[in-house]
Amino acid sequence: MDYASSDAPSVGPSPDMLLPHGARGVKVVVVGGFGVGKTTMVGAVSEIPPLTTEETMTQAGVGIDHNPGVAAKSTTTVAMDFGRISINEQLILYLFGTPGQERFWFLWNGILEGALGAVVLVDTRQIEVCFEIITRLEDRRVPFVVAVNTFPEAPQHPIPALRTALALNESVPIITCDARDRPSSRDALLSLMGYLRTLAAAQESA
């Protein structure tokens, strides 16, 4: 199901419609720059047909959308992506993917509202885009993990070097993943869940 909207989505689907009896649903956001694979990741792991807002790219975006390494990209997300994955019988994740172009980042406030955590998807060919993304999450106090999408043609860097480049605290997980691969993308989400449990345990013992 595709649709286009210029309004920030502030509410998600009704939990009563999507949650099995006794399960808990939480909101997780997949964020990142233009063309890093957010729509691909949501679609790869979603157990329901993902809702997307993909539109054909036109000449209007030339010189505006920063797209190194993704020149062949012909569509782009203009509002959000939505999917769902059951981690187990008690926990279901609602996945919301953000638009990547900076001109659509004003929509992020509504998408981030109520999020338990986020996966920051990274393309090492445009790593500089991550600085503002990470700052936005930190300002809103949204916990996150960093997942480096392993594009075949992208430069590979050691995890410690990426951590230094992104100025990340040692506690923030950095992993590699293939956004096209369901198990790999699911592992990225499980990494976020593990990190959130660690944060919760630290708060309880403080």
In words, what does this structure look like?
There is one protein chain. The chain is an alpha/beta fold. Helices cover 29% and strands 21% of the residues. It is built from 6 helices and 8 strands. The protein has helices at residues 15-18, 38-45, 108-112, 130-139, 159-166, 182-205; strands at residues 24-32, 54-56, 75-77, 81-86, 91-97, 117-122, 144-149, 174-177. A 6-stranded mixed β-sheet has the order 4-5-1-6-7-8, with helices on both faces. The protein has a two-stranded antiparallel ribbon with strand order 2-3. Helix 2 crosses helix 6. The longest helix is centred in the C-terminal third of the chain and has 24 residues, at 182-205.
Core attributes:
8 strands, globular, 6-stranded mixed β-sheet, 206 residues, single chain, two-stranded antiparallel sheet, 21% strand, alpha/beta
How many beta-strand runs? 8
Average pLDDT works out at 82
Can you summarize the main beta sheet? 6 strands, mixed
Distance between the termini: 46 Å
* Tally of individual helices: 6
Task: Please compute the radius of gyration using only Cα atoms.
Answer: 16 Å
In short:
The protein has 206 residues and is α/β, with parallel strands linked by helices.
Write the layout of secondary structure elements.
Blueprint lengths: L14 H4 L5 E9 L5 H8 L8 E3 L18 E3 L3 E6 L4 E7 L10 H5 L4 E6 L7 H10 L4 E6 L9 H8 L7 E4 L4 H24 L1
Helix pairs in contact: 2-6
